[in-house]
Specification:
Strand content: 15-25%
Structural class: alpha/beta
Number of strands: 25
Distance between the termini: 44 Å
Number of domains: 5
Largest sheet: 12 strands, mixed
Helix content: 25-40%
Number of helices: 23
Strand order of the largest sheet: 3-4-2-13-14-1-15-19-20-16-18-17
Shape: globular
């Protein structure tokens, strides 16, 4: 690593050459720790931002990493950015307003930088600190939350919702993993608690909480007045009949309204305006091309909207491109003014404008994989040679399980490999040439004069890593809604079984609002707003003899009560059976030796969290010496066969017979082929 003092005192932008892609998190962590202000990295896309964010704290655990993403919708879209994205953006902008005692690294994307944002003053003005003793009336609190973009509901289950029940106010705030429960005595706040939105149960307490808006489009009397005047000025008197204009005039939010955000604000700024004079900015070399592509996309989407636009009420009336986005000239001027340094992966001769880091990509084992060589023996030999040459040999795995397997296989191949839980441990263990395996989310490795870090992907080739993705029940039901036909049965959590009659627009104020229409016994109708669709689920049994429930009747509640009682009885019976089973004995089967590790490494996917949990549970069952009593459930293609393969391998290697029973001949043949190939 070169002397960073030249970078920290540079008067003009520098090119940081020979910075391999995998080394970016390490380089940025070092820059953040050395910088007088925070370090800022501008990546080409969301994937680069996530990679830097996840890996940087491994190299510098004390480092505070802030992510500032871009909207997850297209320019001039009819949909709004996801609440979770807005929450992350607002939390990042709020964090930038406050100084930090430690090192900070802000990681963002070129798309986020090219989009205008709320001003620092507006961010500070829109936050509220809640702590015991704070006084606010319930009506005032409800109005505040609605201005900040929160949606009122009966039960809080997702970000951006709030519910009021007497003296209790539940909120799912931006930037908080759990819900916030405010307990009032009259108008005075008595306590703050956090709760699990799934169970609605309290799980902790807070001394105070800084409440951020749920949306970047803040609706209050002043912003509505600004919007109305500017919208009429830009688009003429006929535009006052547009659904967007009518909704905002009524104080209601509308999907996609954020694309007219500049009309709500006195002024919009750029991310650069949220940064300090001492902040050090670095941009990925690939982000320049990404910026040019983004400029073209913005212009293309704007032109498409203009061609489709007309004077009739309801037409999409786009703002000019420079109203919500930076133009190319303004972007380049900002880069020059803030002395934004650029990283490139290629080597360049040192000069007044070039600082060479001397970090190249790690060795690629693609030729050995193509020839069919034993890749583990090759990797073991390479790591041993690195140690003898005086370099630190380190290998990074995706998970604890793969780290342990790789270390075991390399040790079996004659190169003892130890495990390290931190970067400092890895450096310490490898100082004398000892190969070290650690968990580090890097796709590609790097090397310099002191060390070489190989990744699992460098050695084994591309692995299909499934990133964690959450999907709530409402999203799942919306997907199912597309497959529902008129007359299909659905279940409302409070009112029971009803008949689905389709989506019905319901007049609310001066505009239409889509609702799911249900019919109950006696012809009674119930309209569910689409934003509250999580209270519905599809009826999953035969519909031939099903009776509809009566809206407001007691039959559904009584059936729920009887079902809860029956569940308690079944639970008691299951506990009795489990107790008897626990007394039985079975062979103890364990996964031993490198054979199992090599078998596992042939699995071409990265295990999901649920898959790893299932495999761990099944292996624990086999080792327990008791009969297994486990059912592994999952949809088609979600990895159940891999769980069975590993259990079958352990049983067969332990001298036991394995029988695989399938419901059809075709499925039996498919499983046979899979087992033979592995």
């Amino acid at each position: 690593m070169p002397d960073l003092s030249r970078l920290l005192t540079a008067e003009k932008p520098l090119t940081l050459s020979s910075v391999a892609r995998g080394a970016q998190p390490l380089v940025l962590a070092d820059i953040a720790r050395a910088s007088k202000g925070r370090a800022v990295f501008i990546g080409p896309d969301e994937a680069a931002m996530r990679n830097i964010s996840e890996a940087a704290q491994y190299f510098a655990p004390e480092l505070e990493v802030i992510e500032f993403p871009s909207w997850d919708c297209l320019p001039y879209d009819r949909s709004s950015p996801a609440l979770s994205v807005s929450a992350r953006r607002l939390a990042a902008l709020n964090r930038l307003q406050n100084s930090s005692a430690g090192s900070q690294l802000l990681v963002t994307t070129i798309n986020a930088v090219l989009q205008r944002a709320l001003s620092p003053f507006r961010i500070r003005e829109s936050v509220r600190e809640f702590k015991p003793g704070y006084e606010i009336g319930h009506e005032s609190l409800a109005a505040l939350l609605q201005r900040q973009g929160y949606t009122r509901s009966d039960t809080v289950v997702d970000h951006g919702e709030f519910a009021m029940r007497g003296s209790i106010v539940d909120i799912f705030p931006s930037g908080l993993e759990h819900g916030l429960r405010l307990d009032f005595f009259g108008d005075e706040l008595e306590s703050l608690r956090i709760f699990d939105p799934t169970t609605q149960m309290t799980i902790g307490t807070l001394d105070s909480h800084l409440l951020l808006p749920a949306s970047e489009a803040l609706i209050d009397d002043e912003s509505i007045k600004l919007f109305r005047g500017r919208y009429r000025e830009l688009f003429g008197a006929t535009a006052t009949q547009d659904p967007l204009y009518e909704a905002i005039s009524d104080g209601r939010r509308m999907a996609g309204m954020e694309h007219w955000l500049p009309l709500f604000e006195e002024r919009m700024v750029t991310l650069f305006d949220h940064l300090g004079e001492d902040d050090l900015l670095v941009i990925d070399g690939g982000a320049t091309g990404a910026a040019e592509e983004r400029f073209r996309d913005i212009a293309d989407y704007h032109q498409a909207r203009l061609k489709a636009a007309g004077q009739a009420a309801g037409n999409y009336r786009p703002l000019t491109t420079d109203t919500l986005y930076l133009a190319a000239d303004e972007f380049n001027e900002r880069l020059e003014r803030h002395r934004v340094h650029k990283t490139v992966i290629f080597a360049e001769p040192e000069s007044d404008s070039v600082l060479d880091f001397g970090i190249s990509s790690a060795r690629d084992f693609a030729p050995e994989r193509a020839r069919g060589d034993n890749i583990y023996e090759t990797a073991a030999s390479h790591l041993k040679q690195l140690g003898k040459a005086g370099k630190r040999p380190i290998i990074a795995a995706y998970s604890n399980g793969s780290r342990a397997r790789i270390a075991s296989i390399l040790t079996e191949a004659g190169t003892k490999t130890v495990l390290a839980d931190s970067w400092q441990e890895a450096l310490g263990f490898s100082a004398k040439g000892q190969p070290v395996a650690t968990v580090l989310p890097l796709d590609s490795g790097f090397a310099n004069d002191e060390l070489e870090l190989l990744t699992e992907q460098d050695v084994l080739g591309d692995r299909l890593v499934r990133r964690k993705k959450k999907r709530n029940d409402a999203d799942a039901f919306l997907a199912e809604l597309q497959a529902l036909g008129r007359g299909d049965l659905v279940v409302h959590v409070e009112h029971g079984i009803g008949k689905y009659l389709g989506l019905e627009p319901v007049p609310v104020g001066k505009s239409q609002h889509d609702c799911v229409m249900l019919e109950y016994k006696g012809g009674d109708k119930l309209y569910i707003p689409v934003e509250n669709i999580d209270v519905l689920s599809r009826y999953g049994s035969s519909e031939d003899t099903v009776m509809l429930d009566r809206l407001g009747g007691e039959a559904w509640q009584k059936r729920r009560a009887r079902l809860r009682e029956r569940i308690r009885e079944i639970a008691g019976e299951l506990m009795e059976v489990a107790a008897q089973r626990a007394l039985r004995k079975a062979p103890v089967l364990q996964a031993e030796g490198s054979g199992f590790d090599q078998f596992v490494e042939k699995f071409p996917w990265q295990e999901t969290d649920d898959q790893e949990a299932a495999i761990t549970d099944v292996l624990r069952d086999l080792e327990s010496g008791r009969p297994m009593d486990r059912l592994v459930c999952g949809d088609v293609g979600f990895g159940k066969t891999e769980v069975a393969l590993r259990a079958a391998f352990i049983a067969a290697m332990g001298g036991q017979q394995v029988a695989l029973v399938a419901p059809t001949t075709l499925l039996a043949r498919q499983h046979y082929t899979n087992f033979v190939e592995r």
